[in-house]
Write a structure and sequence with these properties.
heterodimer; A: mainly alpha; 4 helices; 75% helix; B: 166 residues; mainly beta; four-stranded antiparallel β-sheet; globular
């Protein structure tokens, strides 16, 4: 997958701000541009490391699961790890 | 009235939202607020009345607001007035006078209320609102920073507005 476009990043920003706002997540020392930069950097990190992630998966999963499903697996595991915090 | 006396107060419940790009209703710990987006400019409009004993001087509009999440950054806050003069001003066509702007920093803690003053001189600056007249007051978060820097992440929550004689 390619890097996110600017409109896609804008949508991600809106979603993040909405989620943070709903639970009054403390944004201490963080401004708008910091969050936008974090989205860009996270997008780039995922792009740079997608092969590494793919390689840690069991061969059957690596070879047979669709890319979107692998992304969902990644997100669900990450969400579960931090859900209680 | 003397300097410093309150002329009018408004709360989120009395908002007359514009047709588009309006601030949205929310609550903060159960208290009603209006949320202003941090990316697109949004406004709230309030109908106000200028008391008959207003002394025709300048006014100060004090906006009470909070950040939803942020404890850092500034907002660009516009306030504009529109007089409704007896048998003269047509609401179908009348426009707001040019807005005055403030560029306040958010309070030091999320949930703390910041009081931001925006002053208007008497005359055209406040659309010549006179004693005994209705007028409209528009509060806008200039989220894209047209007039001054707006770098605060997340919504601005409006708690109320006070209008006093300067």
């Amino acid at each position: 997958m390619a890097l996110l476009t600017d409109p896609q990043k804008a949508e991600v920003y809106k979603e993040i701000i909405q989620k943070f706002g709903d639970r009054h997540e403390l944004l201490s020392g963080i401004k708008k541009q910091d969050i936008k930069d974090a989205i860009t950097n996270t997008d780039q990190f995922q792009e740079d490391n997608k092969a590494a992630f793919n390689n840690v998966l069991p061969t059957a999963v690596k070879n047979n699961l669709a890319a979107k499903a692998k992304a969902e697996l990644f997100m669900i595991v990450a969400d579960a790890k931090y859900k209680s915090q | 009235m003397a300097s410093g006396n309150t002329l009018f107060t408004v709360s989120p419940e009395s908002n007359n939202p514009p047709a588009a790009s309006f601030a949205t209703v929310d609550t903060r710990n159960g208290y009603m607020v209006l949320d202003f987006d941090d990316t697109a400019d949004e406004s709230a409009i309030f109908k106000c009345f200028m008391p008959a004993n207003y002394a025709a001087g300048g006014i100060t509009v004090t906006v009470a607001w909070m950040a939803t999440s942020a404890t850092t950054g500034n907002i660009s806050l516009d306030v504009a007035l529109m007089s409704i003069t007896d048998d003269a001003d047509d609401l179908d066509t009348k426009a707001f006078a040019a807005a005055n702007n403030a560029n306040p920093a958010t309070a030091s803690a999320s949930g703390e209320v910041k009081y931001t003053d925006i002053t208007f001189t008497d005359g055209a600056d406040m659309d010549s609102v006179a004693a005994g007249e209705w007028y409209l007051l528009k509060v806008t978060r200039d989220a894209n920073g047209t007039t001054s820097t707006d770098d605060m992440a997340g919504d601005m929550e409006l708690l109320g507005v006070r209008i006093k004689e300067t």
